[in-house]
Amino acid sequence: MRRTSFQFEGDFAAVLQEEYKQRARDPRYEYRHRVEYAAMGWANRIGHAEFPPGELNKILVDKHGVVPSKDAVNHVRRTKEWGLIESESNRRCLVLPEYRFQKGIGDVTCDDHGIRPAKRFRP
Ligand SMILES: [Zn+2]
Question: Measured in angstroms, how far is the CA atom of residue 117 from the centroid of ligand 1?
């Protein structure tokens, strides 16, 4: 997967990621949107939002404080069905499409998807 370099121009606007982290945790929103908000809130420079094991479940708890892990899997699947996140997304990493998300700073790696900067050959 090759991403173009950051191009903050045209119809792009900036958002405050902290706000989307809060929305992801807000049970007033529908789950598909909360999953998308989590992706928006935690995405790095290449649009990958990585979560430690079980963390997305904690983010998506309902007003009673629970979301079984299989439910989180289903919420991610339904969010993919709506095209809000990329098909390679899973509970450990939500991926936003480049045509909808760009960021100028941050990591360009993803452990879950095995994305690492190319190593330079040093003779
Ligand atoms: Zn990833």
Answer: 13
